[in-house]
Design brief:
Layout: H1 8-42, H2 51-87, H3 102-107, H4 115-125
Helix pairs in contact: 1-2
Length: 129
């Protein structure tokens, strides 16, 4: 199945954008990992830290972990989109098989789901209130 809204020139532009995004995300994840390693080395001697320092350190580590998890998830989507370019299925929803509108791909080149499928997936993952 193919997305008839997409021509080869658009797909090649998207491939380039995705490759640039992948390189940037990988660089950011490496930077976060280096920061975490540096902080862990600094925190080895807790005798020099008061409870406020330790609380701030814990908060920073939790925030870094959340940011890193978000970046890794986005990197997975970028890698999947690049895989779809190679397979010839870029612009086709992984969930429904429907075409993903070109406007969505312009805005979110790593989109692998239609907006509706993405919203449904997010609702299913979110615990009931």
């Amino acid at each position: 199945m193919a997305n008839n809204e997409l021509n080869q020139e658009f797909i090649e532009q998207q491939r380039q954008r995705l490759q640039e995004m992948k390189a940037e995300l990988e660089r950011m994840v490496r930077g976060l990992e280096e920061d975490q390693q540096f902080r862990a080395e600094e925190e080895e001697d807790f005798t020099q830290h008061d409870s406020g320092d330790m609380s701030q350190s814990l908060f920073t580590r939790e925030m870094d972990a959340t940011v890193e998890q978000t970046m890794e998830k986005r990197l997975e989507s970028v890698e999947r989109a690049l895989q779809k370019v190679e397979e010839g299925t870029y612009g086709i929803c992984d969930d429904t098989g429907e075409p993903i509108p070109r406007g969505r791909l312009d805005a979110v080149p790593e989109a692998i789901y239609t907006v509706e499928a993405q919203q449904r997936r997010e609702r299913e993952r979110r615990p009931p209130v």
